[in-house]
Structure formats: C-alpha cells, structure tokens
C-alpha cells in the first residue's frame, strides 16, 4: 500500500524535473528565463505564434557577440542571416519584441541609405528615428512590411536593451505561457496565479491518484 508521502512525491516530481531542466538550461545559456514564448506572427514562417524559443545571453560563448543580417559571415538564425533578439525599450510600457537585427548604425548616420528601400515608409527626413540619435541597431520582423524603426514599433535599439538572442525554436510549446500572459493581462496577475496554482494542484492530485492505482494494481 502506498504511503501519502510517496503519493505527494509522485505528484510534484514532474514539476521538479521541469524546474531542474530550466535551471540547467539557464546556466548553460547565461540568461533567465532561458525561454521566450512567441506571441505574434511577425517572425513567420521560421517561428510561429505559440512556439517556445531558447535564448542565450548576447555575449555567451560559444555563440559569440551580436551579429546583424548584413554583417560578414553572419550566422544563420531561425530561417535567416543575423541574430534574432529579444529587446525592450525602457519606459515604453510595451511587451518585449522578438525580431531580427537588420544592421548596425552609428550615431548621426542617415541609415536609410543602407536600408532595403522596400522596408521603409519614407526617407530620413520623414522618420523620427533618422538620423540615428546614437549607436544601435535597426531591427525587423521577418514577416513585417517595414523595419521596426520605420513602422513606429521602436527607436534605434541600443545594445543594452537587448536581453538575449535566439538559439532555436520548439513548435507549440509556448502556448501555455501565451495563455497565462493573456489571462494576466485581462484578469490580473493575482487571479491568474490562483487559477494556475489550482490547475497545477488538481493535475498533481490526479497524477498521484493514477500512480497510486497503478501501484496498487501491480501489488494485487
């Protein structure tokens, strides 16, 4: 007959295993959390909404420093040349952006001269992000019609705003995170946390019940 303690251990073991895997991956890639759940289709077709992306620190060996799409010998990342990064504009209040580094710009540069003209909404005089106010990056979602700096998504992206860069994506594993974030935005973080904890407890209880019955059946 199984003991209550062993049943509790069986219930929490999967969660502990997932946490340990996340900690190990975080130690390897040098950033936390080491995963990003993709919430939009701006990086299709290589990365779809609901995919889970493993990210690393921008200076983590052996993946090297940041590389833009136009850099010589730029690495292939998620279906294209150059690093795909997670960045957030301080004080903007929006969610982090997951887009590709198109090219690096220097302070005072008219970066539209080097840009793909099909991804611009106007010339330098018509863009608030041009000339570049400081050193940084022009960025772009692979599926978007314009650069972020031309579409008004973000100013020129400073390197210190970049939280990590993508290594690879796992299809559909990010839907749980997307769902939690959407619920938190609609109902609030506390209410969402209560529901998530309740679901986790229910799942653990069901798992412990199933494990207990299987063990009981084997001993009969």
From TrEMBL:
UniProt lineage: Archaea, Methanobacteriati, Methanobacteriota, Stenosarchaea group, Halobacteria
UniProt protein name: S26 family signal peptidase
Superkingdom of the organism of origin: Archaea
Subcellular location per the Swiss-Prot or TrEMBL entry: Membrane
Transmembrane segment boundaries: 187-211
BP terms from Gene Ontology: signal peptide processing
Listed GO CC annotations: membrane
InterPro entries per UniProt: LexA/Signal_pep-like_sf (IPR036286), Peptidase_S26 (IPR019533), Peptidase_S26B (IPR001733)
Chief place where the protein resides: membrane
GO molecular function: serine-type endopeptidase activity
Keywords: Membrane, Transmembrane, Transmembrane helix
């Amino acid at each position: 007959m199984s003991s209550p303690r062993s049943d509790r251990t069986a219930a929490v073991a999967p969660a502990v295993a997932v946490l340990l895997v996340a900690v190990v991956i975080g130690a390897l890639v040098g950033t936390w959390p080491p995963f990003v759940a993709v919430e939009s289709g701006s990086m299709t077709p290589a990365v779809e909404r609901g995919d889970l992306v493993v990210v690393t620190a921008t200076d983590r060996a052996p993946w090297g420093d940041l590389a833009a799409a136009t850099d010589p010998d730029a690495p292939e990342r998620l279906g294209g040349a150059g690093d795909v990064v997670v960045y957030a504009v301080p004080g903007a209040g929006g969610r982090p952006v997951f887009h590709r580094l198109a090219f690096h710009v220097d302070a005072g540069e008219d970066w539209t001269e080097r840009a793909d003209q099909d991804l611009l909404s106007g010339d330098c005089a018509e863009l608030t992000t041009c000339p570049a106010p400081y050193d940084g990056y022009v960025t772009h979602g692979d599926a978007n019609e314009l650069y972020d700096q031309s579409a008004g998504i973000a100013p020129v992206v400073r390197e210190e705003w970049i939280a990590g860069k993508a290594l690879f994506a796992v299809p559909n594993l990010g839907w749980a995170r997307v769902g939690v974030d959407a619920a938190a935005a609609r109902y609030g973080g506390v209410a969402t946390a209560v529901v998530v904890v309740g679901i986790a407890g229910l799942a653990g209880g069901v798992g412990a019940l199933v494990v207990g019955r299987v063990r009981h059946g084997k001993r009969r």
